[in-house]
Inverse folding.
C-alpha cells in the first residue's frame, strides 16, 4: 500500500481505523462507515443551521442581480470576512475528523500531516494574492489569460478547473454520505440528495454572497466548537500540556511512540512530493483562487490570506490537542466508546469518530449534536464553493469567452451559470451515488496534484515571466495535467487499491506525482515559450509591461462593485 | 491600458522601487518558508531519533515544539508580509498611481 502515510502499525496494534491506509495519503478522507442509530439532537441542530443559511440565501438573492454579484458577491466582502470564508473552504470535515482521528491513532504523525496542509498559504500570500486581485475579474483564467489568446488559454483553464472540481467534489460527496450515516443515522441515498439540493439552493439563488456567508458561519461554528473542546481537554489537566502527554502515554497502547514521528513518512521522495503537492496545490485550487475576486482591493486580498492562514493554523493546533484529548478521555472508558467495549475492536463508528466521541465526553449529548451538525454543515459549504467555481468556469470561460467570443450580455451569462449550477448539482449527486462503494481515498490528493501541476505553473509563469506565451502556457499546463493523472493511476493508491492489481505491481513507486509533474509543467512552459516564433508569441510578450503595471499597482483593475 | 500610461508608470523610479522591494521581500520570505517546511520534513525522513529525543526530564519530545513551531512560523511570517505590504508597499503604490494620473 502507500509508503508515506501508512498507519498500518496502528491498525495492527489498535485496529482503531476503519479506513484504509491510503485514506491518509489522500487527505484524510472519511472512508466507509457503518450506519449509526438516528441522532435527533444532531438532526435538529443541523436543521436549525440549514434554516438560518437558507434565510441568508433569501437575503443574498435580493442582492444578486448581475454576473459580478453572482461570481464575486459584487466585490463587496471585507478582508476579514473573506479570510474566514477561505478558512471555511479549507477546513473540511475530512481535515477536522480525519486529522484528529490520525492524532488519536498515531499521535505526532498527525501533526506532520496537518503542517503540510498549512504551508501553501504563505506562498499564496507572498507571490500570488494581490496580483490575482489586481488582474482578475471572475475566474483564474482572467488572470492566467490576461495577455494571451483567449480561446486556448480559457479551454485549458476551464479543463484544469473542472477536473480539480470533479475529483474534489466526488471525495466530498462520498464523504458526506458516509458522514451522515455515521452522525445522523440517515440513509446514504437521502444524504446525497439532501446535500445536492441544499447546496444548489445556496448557489442558485444566493450566488457568491450566500456561499460566502454560509462559509463564514460554518467557520465560526467549527472554530468555536473546536476551541471549546480543546479548552475543556486542557482544563482537565490544569492547562498543562505535559500532564496531558503523560496521561496519553500511560493509556495509549503505543506508549511514548506517540510523541515521535512513526511510520507516516518512510521514503524522502514521497515526503517531499506530497509536500510539494500540498504547498503548490493550494495556490491552484479554483474555488480558493475565486475568493480573491470577492474583495474590493489588493489590500483586502492580503488581509484575507493573513486571516485565513491564522485561522487555519490555529485550527490545526486545536485538532492536535483534540486528538490527544480523545486518547486521554476515550481509551480509559472502553465500554462507552469502543465496539463491544473492546479497545482492540476500535471506536464505535470507526477511527474518524474520535473527535465526535470526545465532544460527548466533554460536553454531553447536546454538544455532540452540535459538533455532528457542524461536521455536516462543513461538507455542504465546501460543496457549494466547488459548484460555484465549476459553474463560473463553464459560463464565464467556456460559454462567454470561448463560445461567444466575449459578445454576450450579463443576463445571458448569468442564465448559463445558473443552468450549469443545476447540471453540476445533478452530476455531483449522481457521482456521489455511483462512487458510494468505491475507494475514493486518492481523489483529494489527485485534485491537489493536478492543481499544483497544471493550474499553478500556468498562473505563476503567465503573471511573473515576461517571455511566457500562449502556446507555452497551454502546452505546459496540459503536460502537467496529463502527467499528474497518469502517474497517480500508476501509484499504489489507485493501481492496487482501486484497480485491484496485485500488491507491489504499481509501476509508479511514490505517493504523489507532484515532484515530477510540477517541474515537467514548468520546463515545458519555459521551453515551448522560448522556442515559440509564432505571430501570437510577439503579441503575448509585448503585452507583458502593461500586465505587469496592472498586477503590481492595480491601475486599471476592476473596481469594487462595477467590475 | 494605454501605452503612454504604461510608459509613464514604468519610468517612475518609485514604481521600480516598489517592484524590487516587493520582489526581494516576497522571495526571501518564500525561501524561508520552504526552508522551514522542507527542513522539518527532511528531519522527519532522516533523523527520527533527534525528533524523538526528550526535552529535559519531561515527556515532551523535541519534535513537538518544532512541529508546533512550524505552524506558528507560518502564521507569523504570513502576517509580517501582510503588515509591510499593507503599509509601506501600499504607500508606494498610491504614490505611483497619483503620479500616473497627472
Amino acid at each position: 500500500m502507500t509508503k508515506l502515510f501508512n498507519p498500518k502499525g496502528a491498525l495492527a496494534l489498535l485496529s482503531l481505523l476503519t479506513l484504509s491506509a491510503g485514506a491518509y495519503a489522500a487527505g484524510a478522507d472519511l472512508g466507509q462507515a457503518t450506519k449509526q442509530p438516528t441522532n435527533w439532537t444532531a438532526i435538529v441542530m443541523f436543521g436549525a443551521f440549514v434554516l438560518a443559511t437558507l434565510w441568508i440565501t433569501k437575503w443574498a438573492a435580493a442582492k444578486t442581480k448581475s454576473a459580478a454579484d453572482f461570481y464575486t458577491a459584487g466585490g463587496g466582502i471585507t478582508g476579514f470576512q473573506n479570510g474566514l470564508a477561505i478558512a471555511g473552504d479549507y477546513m473540511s470535515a475530512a481535515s477536522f475528523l480525519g486529522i484528529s482521528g490520525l492524532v488519536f491513532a498515531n499521535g505526532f504523525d498527525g501533526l506532520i500531516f496537518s503542517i503540510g496542509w498549512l504551508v501553501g498559504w504563505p506562498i499564496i500570500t507572498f507571490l500570488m494574492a494581490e496580483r490575482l486581485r489586481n488582474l482578475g475579474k471572475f475566474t483564474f483564467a482572467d488572470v492566467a489569460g490576461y495577455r494571451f489568446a483567449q480561446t486556448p488559454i480559457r479551454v485549458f483553464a476551464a479543463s484544469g478547473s473542472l477536473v480539480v472540481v470533479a475529483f474534489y467534489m466526488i471525495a466530498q460527496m462520498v464523504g458526506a454520505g458516509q458522514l451522515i450515516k455515521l452522525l445522523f443515522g440517515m440513509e446514504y441515498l437521502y444524504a446525497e440528495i439532501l446535500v445536492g439540493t441544499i447546496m444548489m439552493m445556496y448557489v442558485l439563488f444566493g450566488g457568491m454572497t450566500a456561499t460566502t456567508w454560509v462559509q463564514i458561519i460554518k467557520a465560526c461554528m467549527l472554530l468555536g466548537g473546536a476551541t471549546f473542546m480543546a479548552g475543556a481537554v486542557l482544563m482537565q489537566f490544569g492547562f498543562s500540556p505535559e500532564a496531558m502527554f503523560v496521561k496519553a502515554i500511560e493509556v495509549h497502547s503505543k506508549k511514548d511512540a506517540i510523541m515521535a514521528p512513526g511510520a507516516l513518512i518512510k521514503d524522502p521522495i514521497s515526503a517531499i512530493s506530497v509536500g510539494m503537492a500540498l504547498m503548490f496545490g493550494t495556490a491552484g485550487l479554483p474555488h480558493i483562487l475565486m475568493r480573491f475576486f470577492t474583495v474590493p482591493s489588493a489590500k483586502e486580498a492580503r488581509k484575507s490570506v493573513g486571516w485565513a492562514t491564522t485561522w487555519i493554523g490555529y485550527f490545526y493546533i486545536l485538532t492536535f490537542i483534540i486528538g490527544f484529548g480523545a486518547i486521554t478521555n476515550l481509551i480509559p472508558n472502553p465500554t462507552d466508546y469502543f465496539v463491544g467495549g473492546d479497545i482492540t475492536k476500535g471506536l464505535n463508528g470507526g477511527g474518524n469518530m474520535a473527535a465526535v466521541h470526545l465532544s460527548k465526553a466533554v460536553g454531553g449529548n447536546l454538544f455532540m449534536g452540535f459538533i455532528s451538525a457542524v461536521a455536516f454543515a462543513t461538507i455542504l459549504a465546501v460543496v457549494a464553493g466547488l459548484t460555484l467555481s465549476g459553474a463560473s468556469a463553464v459560463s464565464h470561460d467556456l460559454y462567454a469567452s470561448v463560445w461567444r467570443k466575449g459578445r454576450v450580455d450579463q443576463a445571458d451569462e448569468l442564465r448559463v451559470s445558473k443552468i450549469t449550477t443545476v447540471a453540476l448539482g445533478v452530476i455531483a449527486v449522481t457521482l456521489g451515488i455511483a462512487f458510494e462503494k468505491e475507494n475514493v481515498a486518492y481523489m483529494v490528493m489527485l485534485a491537489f496534484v493536478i492543481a499544483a501541476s497544471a493550474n499553478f505553473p500556468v498562473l505563476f509563469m503567465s503573471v511573473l515571466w515576461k517571455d511566457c506565451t500562449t502556446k507555452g502556457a497551454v502546452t505546459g499546463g496540459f503536460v502537467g495535467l496529463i502527467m499528474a493523472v497518469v502517474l497517480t493511476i500508476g501509484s499504489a493508491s489507485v493501481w492496487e487499491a482501486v484497480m485491484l492489481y496485485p500488491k507491489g505491481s504499481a509501476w509508479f513507486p511514490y505517493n504523489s506525482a507532484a515532484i515530477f509533474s510540477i517541474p515537467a509543467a514548468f520546463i515545458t512552459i519555459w521551453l515551448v515559450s522560448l522556442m515559440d516564433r509564432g505571430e501570437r508569441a510577439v503579441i503575448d510578450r509585448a503585452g507583458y509591461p502593461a500586465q505587469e503595471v496592472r498586477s503590481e499597482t492595480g491601475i486599471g483593475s476592476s473596481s469594487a462593485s462595477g467590475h | 491600458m494605454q501605452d503612454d500610461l504604461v510608459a509613464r508608470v514604468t519610468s517612475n523610479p518609485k514604481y521600480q522601487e516598489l517592484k524590487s522591494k516587493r520582489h526581494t521581500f516576497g522571495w526571501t520570505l518564500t525561501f524561508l518558508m520552504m526552508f522551514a517546511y522542507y527542513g522539518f520534513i527532511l528531519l522527519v525522513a532522516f533523523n527520527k531519533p533527534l525528533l524523538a529525543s526528550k526535552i529535559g526530564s519531561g515527556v515532551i519530545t523535541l519534535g513537538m515544539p518544532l512541529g508546533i513551531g512550524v505552524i506558528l512560523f507560518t502564521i507569523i511570517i504570513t502576517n509580517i508580509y501582510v503588515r509591510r505590504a499593507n503599509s509601506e508597499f501600499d504607500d508606494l503604490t498610491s504614490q505611483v498611481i497619483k503620479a500616473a494620473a497627472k
Remarks:
- The longest helix of chain A spans residues 354-403.
- Residues 144 and 459 of chain A are 5 Å apart (CA to CA).
- The domain at 8-553 of chain A is CATH 1.20.1730.10 (Sodium/glucose cotransporter).
- Chain A is about 70% helix and 0% strand.
